[in-house]
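User: I've been trying to design a sequence by hand for this structure and keep getting stuck. Would you show me what you'd pick, starting by listing the structure so we're on the same page?

Assistant: Good idea, let's start from the same input. This is the structure you sent:
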């Protein structure tokens, strides 16, 4: 399987690294508009292979011809939020970038599955679907895995248990209209609703909705990438034929753009 990651910034580079280290792809190709950036990052990653024990099958390029025939393309190209910005503030600039990169990706990899990461997520996923012309099953916006992981972590922190013992799921948009589901939220199999009071439940849900902004405010420059890249790696393994786990992905058509499909 060939995986391409478009955009070699914080999210793109850490996603490529996680996919390579987990051995999820025969080849990982990183692309960026900045000359030599993906090449330098890929070389640095390959040099870590002897220590970390993975196959050094990552390469960087500025030429989409090198991505030809990709099975999976993760699109992270675009500006991240700065403190005080909403994801929608990125709309205009990132729409131009998505139009540019998706056109090139689709031309070189007509059978690929696209996982869109660039914000504002729902709008960029819809745009990627329009520009590529791919069937809806092959264009996903990925934040549900990330939002669910954040909620699981906050629950584990609240109850002082390992995150592996907390289960939770969010649906809907990546932002204020996100829907944390009460029923699948459990700790060691016990319903969360029996372990915390209503006020704590609401606090955990709201912190999850605001989790991206919390990190942007702390970093003061750019947005989160460790948890986002872990979510992308998880989505990549679920999208490959090597795994059949359930992933929570964003619907193709954002509610802002019209009738949901
Ligand atoms: N969906 C999510 O859950 C989620 C989580 C975190 C970040 N994000 C979003 O992901 C995007 C990337 O975040 P980041 O922290 O990696 O930003 P970053 O600034 O570190 O990296 C972005 C990269 O995109 C590249 N780029 C810009 N235009 C390009 C083009 N036309 N072709 C190829 N590459 C191009 C830049 O050169 C840069 O290297 C942002 O829009 C951010 O908001 C989404």
């Amino acid at each position: 399987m060939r995986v391409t990651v478009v955009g070699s910034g914080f999210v793109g580079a850490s996603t490529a690294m996680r996919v390579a280290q987990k051995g999820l792809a025969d080849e990982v190709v990183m692309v960026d508009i900045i000359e030599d950036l993906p090449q330098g990052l890929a070389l640095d990653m390959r040099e870590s292979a002897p220590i970390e024990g993975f196959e050094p099958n990552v390469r960087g390029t500025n030429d989409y011809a090198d991505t030809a025939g990709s099975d999976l393309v993760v699109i992270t190209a675009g500006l991240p939020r700065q403190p005080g910005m909403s994801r929608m503030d990125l709309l205009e600039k990132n729409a131009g970038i998505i139009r540019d990169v998706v056109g090139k990706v689709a031309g070189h990899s007509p059978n690929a599955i696209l996982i869109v990461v660039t914000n504002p997520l729902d709008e960029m996923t819809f745009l990627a679907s329009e520009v590529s012309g791919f069937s809806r099953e092959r264009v996903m916006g990925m934040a549900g895995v990330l939002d669910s992981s954040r909620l699981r972590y906050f629950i584990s922190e609240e109850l002082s248990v390992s995150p592996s013992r907390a289960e939770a799921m969010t649906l809907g948009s990546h932002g204020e209209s996100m829907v944390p589901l009460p029923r699948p939220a459990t700790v060691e199999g016990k319903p969360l609703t029996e372990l915390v009071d209503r006020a704590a439940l609401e606090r955990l849900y709201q912190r999850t909705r605001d989790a991206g902004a919390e990190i942007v405010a702390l970093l003061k420059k750019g947005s989160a990438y460790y948890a986002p890249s872990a979510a992308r790696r998880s989505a990549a393994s679920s999208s490959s034929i090597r795994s059949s786990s359930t992933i929570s992905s964003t619907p193709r058509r954002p509610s802002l753009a019209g009738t949901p499909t």
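That's my pick for every position. To get oriented when you compare it with your attempt: Residues 91-108 form the longest helix (18 residues). Residues 6-12, 31-34, 76-81, 90, 94, 97, 100-101, 117-119, 121, 143, 146, 174, 222-225, 228 surround nicotinamide-adenine-dinucleotide (CB under 6 Å).
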